[in-house]
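Customer escalation, tier 2.

The customer says the design service returned an amino acid string that "doesn't look like it belongs to this structure." They asked us to rerun it and document both sides in this ticket. The original structure tokens are below, unchanged.
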């Protein structure tokens, strides 16, 4: 199989789909790898490293996409890349299709086999390819939020950890999953007061044990949420429904009652966001203000730390890349039903139920299509 690794062109996307170590493993397994010139530069992987690992360096994205049987990326394709789509191409990347109807239609029309990192499951039902970036984004959310609380960036002029004689800031984290847990670790580490909201009482019990009671846990309902957000200096949204659009947990009315100069970081924004006033932003123009509240809603937060993020991501994704290359599409899907759940589009058919329900489209299970 020929595997293509194009350079990411989404705004300030600095990660890369395969590292030189991954290239060497693929080449040793008898596969051919095409890497676009400078694809790994911003993740600190040079063309020479890729070439020494056995990759062929290709000068244009057109050739990478055109010659590859499978393209491995990090972020969902942007409009400039839609023209590279063709029937039978395997695209393995984050897709986040639920809120992006035009990309879904292009993948279906061109009969691209779209496999989404974010819907692949392991034997325990967890999301192994989403976890590493959720860990990065959760930890970054506190750093970013603390930065935007500074007055020169539109915030309240508050030091999140406080100092002796001055109380720390209040952090409200919505969602007790991977994002929320990692955000809580960092927020506690800088000395903030942390409230974590989740509807799953068993998960709240687990978190209470994990953090030895240092995190205030709160059962999610409209009353509790409105009260916690009104007191918060920093709100972090980390709600996830795998493959589907994120539910709007925080309403416009709740945001309007927040403190002026408070900050919202909506980590769920790549699935549409869990805060009603949130809209996608980029690293070039990351924040905006609504009702005096600063909103940071960058859809690819981990791209700000690409070396860490690329290594963490490819540690998780590469075994699946190798399996696809060695065994082929059908065998890989049939052998691992959890991996089959990553298939979102196959031969012009939508194969992810959560995406279909979000877009009100028909769908078929991928294993029905592959026999």
């Amino acid at each position: 199989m020929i595997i293509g690794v194009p350079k990411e062109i989404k705004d300030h996307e600095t990660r890369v789909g395969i590292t030189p170590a991954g290239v060497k493993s693929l080449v040793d397994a008898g596969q051919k790898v095409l890497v676009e010139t400078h694809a790994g530069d911003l993740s600190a992987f040079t063309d020479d490293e890729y070439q020494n690992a056995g990759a062929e360096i290709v000068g244009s994205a057109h050739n990478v996409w055109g010659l590859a049987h499978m393209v491995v990326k990090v972020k969902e394709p942007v409009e400039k890349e839609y023209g590279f789509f063709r029937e039978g191409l395997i695209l393995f990347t984050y897709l986040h299709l639920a809120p992006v109807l035009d990309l879904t239609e292009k993948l279906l029309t061109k009969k691209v086999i779209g496999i989404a990192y974010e819907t692949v499951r392991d034997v325990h039902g967890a999301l192994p390819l989403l976890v590493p970036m959720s860990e990065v984004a959760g930890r970054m959310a506190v750093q970013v939020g603390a930065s935007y609380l500074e007055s020169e960036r539109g915030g309240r002029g508050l030091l999140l950890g406080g100092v002796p004689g001055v109380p720390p800031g209040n952090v409200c984290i919505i969602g007790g999953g991977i994002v929320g847990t990692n955000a809580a670790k960092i927020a506690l580490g800088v000395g903030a007061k942390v409230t974590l909201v989740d509807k799953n009482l068993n998960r709240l019990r687990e978190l209470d044990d994990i953090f030895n009671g240092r995190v205030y846990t709160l059962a999610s309902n409209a009353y509790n949420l409105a009260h916690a957000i009104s007191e918060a200096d920093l709100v972090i949204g980390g709600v996830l429904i795998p493959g589907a659009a994120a539910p709007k947990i925080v309403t416009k009315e709740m945001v309007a009652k927040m403190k002026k100069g408070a900050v919202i970081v909506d980590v769920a924004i790549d699935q549409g966001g869990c805060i009603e006033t949130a809209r996608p932003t980029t690293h070039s123009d990351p924040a905006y203000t609504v009702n005096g509240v600063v909103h940071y809603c960058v859809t690819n937060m981990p791209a700000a730390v690409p070396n860490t993020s690329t290594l963490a991501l490819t540690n998780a994704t590469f075994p699946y890349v190798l399996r696809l290359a060695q065994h082929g599409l059908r065998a890989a899907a049939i052998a691992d039903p959890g991996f089959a759940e990553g298939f979102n589009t196959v031969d012009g058919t939508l194969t992810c139920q959560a995406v279909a329900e979000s877009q009100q489209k028909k769908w078929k299970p991928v294993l029905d299509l592959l026999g």
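Tier 2 assessment: The sequence is consistent with the input. The CA atoms of residues 30 and 66 lie 20 Å apart. The domain at 133-299 is CATH 3.40.50.720 (Rossmann fold). Sent an explanation to the customer and offered a walkthrough call.
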